[in-house]
Amino acid sequence: MLSIAIIGTGNVAEHLFNAFLQPQKVRVVQVVGRNKGRFTKFSSEATTDDFTQIGDADIYIIAVADDAIAEIAQFLSQKNGLVVHTSGSTNMNTIQNENRGVFYPLQTFTEGKPVNFDSIPICIEAQHDSSLKLLHNLASLISKKVHEIDSQKRKKLHLAAVFANNFTNHLYGIGEAICQEIGVSFDLLRPLILETAEKVQTLSPRDAQTGPARRGDAKSMENHLNLLKNKKQIELYTLLSEAIKSTYEEKL
Ligand SMILES: NC(=O)c1ccc[n+]([C@@H]2O[C@H](COP(=O)([O-])OP(=O)(O)OC[C@H]3O[C@@H](n4cnc5c(N)ncnc54)[C@H](OP(=O)(O)O)[C@@H]3O)[C@@H](O)[C@H]2O)c1
User: How far is CA 23 from the centre of its chain?
Assistant: First the structure.
């Protein structure tokens, strides 16, 4: 039986906690966080807001804001267990322990939106081979997609995820704002968003691209720009259209 202590009580902490409830070979023995109000989300028998009271565990999972990882890891510097963080963009060496690693689930986690860990890639890294094996065992209990990825590659992967996920979501937001402006429900765009996301499950995004910039429809793009008043949106439209155009230039 693997014993786990989760440090942090945010989105990732909660989703991991719930995922670890299922497998019999693992038990979350403690949840540690500065926000006592969040403890109700964790049915763990042991919770504390005192970081000096972290007990013994085989693996300590630090799931706090990226900028707080180094500070929190200091409370674990004397522990014998393996200390990992869950960040895509943070170097493994941010953790000072000799026995350190990374357990990065490549998914977007939001409060109140359950996810199925089965298909979520878990990117692992560890200082020692034995610890990498341990992380592999742990990740395999909740996911079928475990990848060994070092800090350099993981940071780039995280960058790719920001483009593919965070930036597209921001663009959904602009779409929603424009719908609101004309009193039309965002529901009208939802099937389109879904179709694009589904298409790239089998196609390369390069082959799936459509729209005025892809076709080189200058008039339509000019019309769109004339409809926009928001400076940031005009800049984004222009920049993205140019980026799309240049990708397909040789084909036009
Ligand atoms: N969300 C995602 O989609 C996602 C996906 C993969 C990996 N990650 C990574 O997982 C980690 C946690 O992300 P999250 O989404 O769970 O963040 P979150 O929901 O914002 O939760 C952050 C947690 O860190 C705690 N915290 C922040 N600063 C702290 C400090 N100085 N001392 C002690 N605790 C502190 C917060 O406590 P308070 O509640 O008191 O503020 C909260 O418990 C990050 O490294 C992130 O990069 C996130």
Answer: 22
pLDDT of residue 44: 74
DSSP 8-state class, residue 4: E
**CATH classification (class only), 154-251:** mainly alpha
For residues 24-42, give the mean pLDDT. Answer: 96
Would you say the CB of residue 101 lies under 6 angstroms from ligand 1? no
Tell me which DSSP letter residue 162 carries: I
CATH of domain 2-149: 3.40.50.720
Domain(s) labelled CATH 3.40.50.720 in the chain stretch across 2-149
Q: Is the CB of 73 under 6 A from ligand 1?
A: no
Gap between the Cα atoms of 103 and 119, Å rounded: 15
Tell how far the Cα of 66 is from the centroid of ligand 1, in angstroms.
7
pLDDT-derived band at 45, boundaries 50, 70, 90: confident
**pTM for the predicted model, two decimal places:** 0.94
CATH 1.10.1040.20 domain range(s) in the chain: 154-251
